[in-house]
């Protein structure tokens, strides 16, 4: 007798939160690339680009953090994804906010702290998007 595979949608991340989290990633990457461009040729406009890109990423990250907080409150006690999502987004938000404050300084005063913070925040944003989207599964067999 054949067994029927039970297919349950396993959605550890809400689609809107996934959109907001994934929307912040290219903005953080753009801020990092702008910091790298500034460190190579010292054109002040690159720091302005980085500051605006990081500010846009912080808007997305703030709303994703709010969604993660709602998901954490509504989560079942045994599931670990909402807590991990909230903590990673909180770290990204705090470090991104510090990075925004660093980029608000004079252009010459942002290096090397701005570049280092941009690298750290971008790597963490890549990690949270990777974790969030790699655990999206259609279902599993019992």
UniProtKB/TrEMBL annotation:
Keyword annotations of the record: Membrane, Transmembrane, Transmembrane helix
Residue ranges crossing the lipid bilayer per the database entry: 16-37, 49-73, 80-102, 114-133
Record domain DUF2231: where: 11-132
InterPro entries the record matches: DUF2231_TM
Name of the protein: DUF2231 domain-containing protein
Organism: Sphingomonas parva
């Amino acid at each position: 007798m054949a067994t029927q595979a039970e297919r349950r949608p396993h959605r550890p991340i809400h689609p809107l939160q996934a959109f907001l989290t994934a929307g912040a990633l290219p903005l953080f990457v753009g801020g990092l690339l702008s910091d790298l461009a500034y460190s190579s040729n010292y054109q002040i406009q690159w720091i302005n680009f980085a500051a605006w890109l990081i500010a846009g990423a912080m808007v997305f990250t703030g709303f994703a953090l709010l969604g993660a907080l709602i998901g954490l409150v509504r989560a079942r006690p045994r599931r670990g994804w909402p807590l991990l999502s909230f903590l990673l987004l909180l770290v990204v938000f705090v470090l991104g906010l510090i990075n925004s404050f660093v980029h608000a300084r004079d252009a010459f005063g942002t290096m090397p702290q701005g570049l280092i913070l941009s690298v750290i925040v971008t790597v963490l944003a890549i990690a949270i998007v990777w974790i969030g989207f790699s655990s999206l599964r259609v279902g599993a067999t019992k």
